[in-house]
Amino acid sequence: MTGLESGQAAEYVNHFGKGYATEALRALLPVVFEFMPRAGGDGTGFDYIEAGIDPENQASRRVLEKCGFTFYRVTKQDFNHPTKGLRDSAWYRIARPGTTLELSHVQHNT
Ligand SMILES: CC(C)(COP(=O)(O)OP(=O)(O)OC[C@H]1O[C@@H](n2cnc3c(N)ncnc32)[C@H](O)[C@@H]1OP(=O)(O)O)[C@@H](O)C(=O)NCCC(=O)NCCS
């Protein structure tokens, strides 16, 4: 299959709003943190995960918030959407369990 056909797209849409994206992301997060090396003093490793979404996508925003992500910042016109052209991105972050975003050296925009 090279593309999503209209019938399949309709079936796909019918599954929105049932908690599937939230459930999948919640399951994925501990796995990523387990296999991702912790941040080291030498600049290697990671203590947070960052997600970028379209700022107008309320469903994506809600999924991230339900999974514990917090808003970090907006970057301007950095995503070239195939039909909408250049779009802003909203970035969210979540810290490794046992750390905080501040400890992860995140600088929140005020
Ligand atoms: C974004 C997407 C992955 C979410 O998947 P999903 O399985 O529907 O998400 P969930 O059901 O886990 O959660 C969606 C949440 O957003 C909320 N939501 C959906 N549309 C909303 C809207 N227009 N305004 C506010 N909240 C909205 C739902 O009510 C739900 O929150 P709740 O549990 O508090 O009621 C899915 O809608 C999708 O694939 N959309 C098309 C592609 C897309 O938009 N990709 C992301 C690009 S940034």
UniProtKB/TrEMBL annotation:
Residue ranges annotated for the N-acetyltransferase domain, each copy included: 16-70
SUPFAM superfamilies: Acyl-CoA N-acyltransferases (Nat)
Sequence intervals crossing the membrane: none
GO molecular function: acyltransferase activity, transferring groups other than amino-acyl groups
InterPro entries: Acyl_CoA_acyltransferase (IPR016181), GNAT_dom (IPR000182), N-acetyltransferase (IPR051531)
Name recorded for this polypeptide: N-acetyltransferase domain-containing protein
